[in-house]
Amino acid sequence: MSDLIQAVDSPQKIACAARQLRETAQHKEITPRMVLEVFDQWAAALDNRELHEVPGVTFLSLWLRRGNLEPIVLRELGPNSLNGGWREDGHARLRAFPLGLIGHWPAGNIEIQPVLSLTCALLGGNGCLVRLPSSLVEITRRLMEKLQEVDRTGSLTERIFMASFDHSRIDLHQAMAQAVDGAMIWGGAEAVSQVRGLPFPHWARVVVFGPRLSAAAMDAETWGNKTERSSWCRRIARDVWQFDQQACSSPQTLFLERGDGCDPAEFVEDLKQAFEEENRQHPRQQIEPALTSAITLARASWLLGNDGNRALFPASPDWTILLGTGAEMPPPTQGRTLSVLVVDDLLKVISTFDGTLQTLGLGIKDARKEEMLALAAGRSGVDRVVKLGRMHVFGSPWDGAELIRSMVRLVRHVPSQD
Amino acid sequence: MSALVEIERGTESLLAQPPYGVDPEQRRSALLALLKKNLGYACDRNRQFRNYVEHWPIDFRVADAIADLPYLPVSVFKANPPLALVGVSDVKRTLTSSATTGQVPSRVVLDAATGRRMAKGVITIIRDFIGPARRPYLVIDTPENLAAQAELGARGAAIQALGSFATEVVSCLRPGQERDSSLDLEKLLACAAKWKHSEVLVYGFTHVIWTRLVQPLQREGITLDLPNVRVLHSGGWKRLEQQAVTRDVFTRGVASLFGCSANRIIDYYGMVENVGVIYPDCDHGNKHVPAFADIIVRNPLTLAPVEAGQQGLIQVCSVLPTSFPGFLLLTEDMAQVIDYDGCPCGRRGISFRFAGRAPKAEVRGCGNLEHTRYRLGQGSEVA
Lengths: 418, 383
Fold this sequence. Notes:
The complex is a heterodimer. Chain A is of the alpha/beta class. Chain A has 14 helices and 16 strands. In chain A, the strands form three sheets. Chain A has a seven-stranded mixed beta sheet, with helices on both faces. A six-stranded parallel beta sheet of chain A has the order 1-6-5-4-7-8, sandwiched between helices. Chain A has a three-stranded antiparallel beta sheet with strand order 2-3-16, with no helix packed on it. In chain A, helix 2 runs antiparallel to helix 4 (66-77) and helix 2 crosses helix 6. Chain A is globular and about 70 Å long. In chain A, 52% of the residues are buried. The mean pLDDT of chain A is 94. By secondary structure, chain B is α/β, with parallel strands linked by helices. Chain B has nine helices and 19 strands. Chain B has helices at residues 3-16, 24-45, 47-54, 112-130, 154-161, 185-194, 206-220, 238-242, 247-258; strands at 72-73, 93-96, 107-110, 135-139, 151-153, 166-171, 173-175, 181-183, 200-205, 229-234, 265-269, 279-280, 287-288, 293-298, 311-318, 328-339, 351-357, 372-374, 380-382. In chain B, strands 1, 13, 14, 15, 16 and 17 form a six-stranded mixed beta sheet that branches. A six-stranded mixed beta sheet of chain B has the order 6-4-9-10-11-12. In chain B, a hairpin with a 5-residue loop joins strand 18 and strand 19 (380-382). In chain B, helix 1 (3-16) packs antiparallel against helix 2 (24-45), helix 2 packs across helix 3 (47-54) and helix 7 crosses helix 9. The model of chain B is unreliable at 370-383 (pLDDT under 50). At the A-B interface, helix 8, helix 12 and strand 11 of A face helix 3, strand 1, strand 16 and strand 18 of B.
């Protein structure tokens, strides 16, 4: 079994791999249906006990299923796109062609992101050159081994090259950028800015999934409902725990709309129990000391900043709930630190959001009210409005952009016989 | 008897003991009782601090270990105005930490009593390492850091804290432009000639000693012939590590310059927020804690104290400050606990080694806005 992941130390090695990948993408056509077939088998192979401790692998397995991806392909590339043929468009015909070779720069904190990123490009028939952060090499290797097991003809694996090199090797980043026809860039502000500044060819289509924040909101009918509250709290805990609250879709603040007879202190007690339970099931295995410092500082700053503020936290840095009032979102701490802010009017708060907010997780009793809130969120720059507990469910569009559509060229053919 | 008087008496009693001779259990028990009084006093003086303490998972009044008491992260002293337990009119001096460009310095306020205890603390510690005698004091810094000022930086505070050991003080750097400085060689050589047979105390920031004293004199091939010197230095190794200067290279370079043995060069760890407590290296390369203070090294994953041999975040504990809540502070520095007692140098209690500033997380993902300040309703602003 050849190794898809290689430690790279020269620009020449990248250029060589890029040449091979582009040749494969250009000369060996692959239809979305063929890709979906392999993905479906890959999904089954990933549903394996030995991989269960890999964060996000369950989700990845669901994401790769044909039943999930086929509707996305059809919606983004049009009907009849599964077989890769032409489709009628008035007097013209349309057909999706790969961009060619796609460079992927995944973030270092989401274990399954290198794989998620390349799935979109593979569905478009592209070759994939992936820069693998050193922290993800071993996990990615285990996930890719499962692909190699099911992709017996190599139709997908021959389109993939994963390069592992230190983030400071600008020459290797540049070599990657110069070699590609498109790019998917994920990550924090600094990383994204650096990659965006690389010398991509002028035709390259660069899609950036940059730094965003996410928030959650509940109306009083929902959070004040004592019988349903624990279930909502479990959903919030799940959203906070996944990716250690470092993903763009991780809620940093929960807004609670004030309601008669509803006590936020009671609510955060339930939330505390949900956090404790989630922590029992998914304890941290390691932590950066700098994050521990940031968590202790967030607790202290919150309580020292206003003697009306409240907080719940254990002696460890495992989780933190900061309770207060006001519409101003505190700076995000991450590391399972959730600010819970009581506000008078959710609509007013959501109307003041801006494009920094990616996902709004909602728990709203009344559908009409939710519609108004979703409308306000959309107008304010929010790209995803979902039910609490589903904030990380990766789907298309993401960050307001279609994932597969951005990885193909739609060629228009107007027949000359007409 | 008022709480402050009780604290004063308790602190005086600890300061009067041999700094490193007390049985660790006895010392911890005395410190625990006094730190609880400090916390109670601070809660009475500052509503916000009380709010913090009341939310601590363990009630400090019933805690039976110092490690269970509520501690503050040291960065809270970057707030402006500084977190204080005294009114503005009682503040005699403000100490500021050294901060690199773009960083906000910490600020702690001292009233007269805290200032007095701070001086006593440093004297008690240093005396144990270099003896009680007063001697000529050579400062590897510019003269302005010797002057009494209402707001004093880390360098000035460190220099002035050793003033009690001085019969005379000479600074041997000349101020230059943009915080640069250069060696006043003539003055230095005159001092070296005059003090040749004396015990001499030298202090400077580690990187200042290396770049402003050792390197220029090495280039000129000059040595000072002061075999009875004691060179104290602090301020961290980051800048020298960037120049690939190891501790060993530094110590040998300084010893060779002064013509003294390497054990006369003493590195110490300290921070302005931990007023009156410094941690010099003993002859075995370990740091120790005096009777009026403690160190807890905490596992970053659990924040529980680590076992001997392990590394973690340093928490400093001290009964000296009453003008600001600096009794229990979690720093952003790392240390390794060598042992909880029994250092071959004979000093009792915990021995540890400094292991540098906690490294910043390399990548914190797409949810990290890093330099972006987010305020609802005001849009995002890139700093």
